[in-house]
Design goal:
The structure is a homodimer.
Chain A: E1 4-9, H1 13-24, H2 26-33, E2 37-43, E3 60-61, H3 64-68, E4 75-78, H4 84-95, E5 99-102, H5 105-121, E6 126-127, H6 138-145, E7 151-157, H7 160-172, H8 176-186, H9 194-197, H10 200-214, E8 223-225, H11 233-241, E9 244-255, E10 258-269, E11 281-288, E12 292-299, H12 303-323, E13 346-355, H13 361-371, E14 376-383, E15 390-396, E16 399-400, H14 401-412, E17 417-427
Parallel strand pairs in A: 1-2, 1-4, 2-3, 4-5, 5-6, 8-10, 10-17
Antiparallel strand pairs in A: 7-9, 7-11, 9-10, 11-12, 13-15, 13-16, 13-17, 14-15
InterPro entries (chains A, B): ACT-like_dom_sf (IPR045865), ACT_dom (IPR002912), Asp/hSer_DH_NAD-bd (IPR005106), HDH (IPR016204), HDH_cat (IPR001342), HDH_CS (IPR019811), NAD(P)-bd_dom_sf (IPR036291)
Binding site for NADP(+) (chains A, B): 9-16
GO molecular function (chains A, B): homoserine dehydrogenase activity; metal ion binding; NADP binding
């Protein structure tokens, strides 16, 4: 073996970054793995499109199997995105004994177990550090760094688009739609931003993180997901006034081997390390029984940060190749999955209610909380300047989710409540 | 092989934590490495001392070679501390084919290369994640997570004692000596705190981090070190007023393959992620050419956090053992060392001068900066309420260290300057 030959599937932003890093850091990489690394073939959609980095024309192809079937290729790097077709390419590549590095969170969240099973069968590595939180090496941290500990909580700001939007709304008092428009112009949001703003992107990443953190096979359907499209400036102002930042958090928790995973806008105490993570940055907070509080912060996306993680995986694959131990690493998923019921999920909640401004309203509302055994940490009633009605802001003590759902159901038949304007989980 | 047998050298705080984690997480550990892990022998100083965890009496010994020479032992975990004697124990253990996990920063900073060479010779692993920043897996992050990138800056709050002292001085306006006294009572500072407060502890950790980050063999003598014992409340108040936090930072930088490493009290812009790391927490900020800004935050010390890192190393060693690849990992240090000269080191500086309160003083002082081509970002002159003299606060633009040293030398012969009260590096 004179060189490690790479087949690159996809030549967009991250693919370009991978070529750039492999070229610019060739000496460093060779010092670490003992062999030169060569980009042997690149699958592109359009052979004639001009590109930011130069790759010899005869290495470009628009036929995926020209890459997958090439016997000289040792490692496939998948940065093309997509799910069904891409999965088949990677299953086929693994069946041909090629190791795989992928940045594809959708694929790993939906079909990770199947791909890993295929990798095991053919004694191949499959690595996916870049699929979550771009440049932050959080996946190897969960697998190796905390191998000795029992992780009980993972809280992540794992979607840069929504963190950018909420940060801008908080800092500048601009509306959701205005900031979203700006984010599209800056390239921080897709032209169809649904997957980001409705929390689906974050849910996929939390599926991957909680599978590793809890060592059990979490599925996307296990993640209760709510996005930020209904967050108002009023909510953000209240959060700020009460000493919280409103963030789209993925939260995975474990208690007595029962787990729950949610993605939802959450009020985070301003002293919590996640509260000050602004802009498009990502951060993952991990709580372990033994280690306590830790946090990992960095860029969540972008050409070079994401490519850094892809090439770090490549280095790991090549080191394994040289040692002859690809596909031999022990499984990180070995626990049966037990999901928490709503009765077992316990959180603090913030509620903003618009109510009739007359005597006895507060007493009727607080009675409902009492009836369902939800106790309250703080209650504030005040006139609403822009509305003839009054506002009531409530923060509960820890309450189980089932009881909270019963409270919200009871509110529906309470005439004095005009609207339940907002309900947010509260952390820290 | 039916079980992995561990020889534990030292049974203090961290040793107790290791036994606790190995016992409490036995099922998890076994699921990951496929074998039970047994504490086979423990070296103690006093056989009769009562302990927080139970280890069968016949496993305790006060003879180090009863552990090191025991043929049934596969891995030595060194948590006894000390340098010269401990180094000999580990060299001997490696020579007998035993893998080593150590939490000993002094040993690794001073003799890391020699120990690693011995490990290579005998095809053994030596791992030392717990030696820096307790529960934060920063060492494997530098080796594996950023293997593909070129790290240009590492800034660390890597000493909990000094961070606690500076945080308390900042929050409560208490004096250095008062907070130090309190820290001793709380067990956050040793009875002889010299190594912590004078920056030596942080310098050892920066030696280890910069060796890994820059892939070159940094020695303790390469680290320019200054502690916090001369930091005054006045300094902290000025820092706060100007929008900075005063932190003891280890800073390792690389530019054009030339490096510099310092440990010194530094003014960090309050928007920088390191500025809000309070109390005994540690954090390491890493800047990579490709990845950009990242930060890793967590507990820097303590029984269980440190033991978490020790046992995570143990898991890695045992996985290697099962794969038959101990001691075969490629070297992470392969670059010749080139240190920056003072002319190549460039920073912003904060200066607090006590001066005569008369006409022309400021002009004389600013002339000296001009003479040495140091340009100024901001200058503030004001009367000092507690002193008949005036105060001048200066923040420079980026200036090279040699020029700054010439400025400070010129100040000595300037009659109008009463004292150069403080000089701090400014970051962020």
């Amino acid at each position: 073996m004179e060189a490690v030959n790479i087949g690159l599937l996809g030549f967009g932003t991250v693919g370009t970054g991978v070529v750039r890093i492999v070229e610019n850091h060739q000496d460093d990489l060779r010092s670490q793995v003992g062999l030169p690394i060569r980009i042997a073939k690149v699958l592109v959609r359009d052979l004639d499109k001009p590109r930011g980095v130069s790759v010899a024309e005869d290495k470009l192809t628009d036929d995926p199997y020209a890459v997958i079937d090439d016997p000289s290729i040792h490692v496939i790097i998948e940065v093309m995105g997509g799910v069904a077709r891409t999965k088949q390419y990677l299953l086929d590549a693994l069946a041909r004994g090629k190791h795989v590095v992928t940045a594809n969170k959708d694929l790993m969240a939906l079909h990770g177990p199947e791909l890993m099973e295929q990798a095991r069968r053919y004694k191949c590595d499959i690595m996916y550090e870049a699929s979550v939180a771009g440049g932050i090496p959080i996946i190897r941290t969960l697998i190796d760094g905390f191998s000795s500990d029992r992780i009980t909580k993972i809280m992540g700001i794992v979607n840069g688009t929504t963190n950018y939007i909420l940060s801008k709304m908080t800092e500048e008092g601009a509306s959701y739609l205005d900031v979203l428009g700006e984010a599209k112009q800056l390239g921080y949001a897709e032209s169809d931003p649904t997957s980001d703003v409705e929390g689906m992107d974050a849910a996929r990443k939390m599926t991957i993180l909680s599978t590793l953190g809890f060592r059990t096979e979490v599925e996307l359907a296990d993640v209760s997901t709510r996005g930020i499209s209904s967050v108002t400036l009023e909510d953000i102002r209240y959060a700020k006034r009460l000493g919280y930042a409103l963030k789209l958090l993925g939260i995975a928790e474990r208690q007595d081997e029962h787990i729950s995973i949610t993605v939802e806008p959450t009020m985070v105490k301003h002293t919590h390390p996640l509260a000050s993570v602004g802009g498009v940055f990502n951060a993952v907070y991990v709580y372990g029984e033994a280690v306590g509080e830790t946090m990992f912060y960095g860029p969540g996306a972008g050409e070079l940060p994401t490519a850094t993680s892809v090439v770090a995986d490549l280095v790991a694959v090549v080191k394994n190749l040289r040692l002859g131990v690809n596909g031999l690493h022990s499984s990180t998923v070995y626990k049966p999955k037990k999901l928490k019921s709503d009765e077992q999920i316990s959180n603090k909640y913030f509620l903003l209610l618009h109510v009739e401004d007359r005597a006895g309203v507060l007493s009727q509302i607080t009675q409902i909380f009492a009836d369902h055994e939800v106790s309250l940490e703080s209650v504030l009633q005040q006139p609403n300047p822009s509305n003839p009605k009054a506002e009531i802001i409530i923060i509960t003590h820890d309450a189980n989710l089932a009881a909270m759902k019963r409270v919200l159901a009871a509110f529906e038949s309470l005439d004095v409540i005009q609207t339940v304007q907002s309900v947010y989980r509260v952390e820290g």
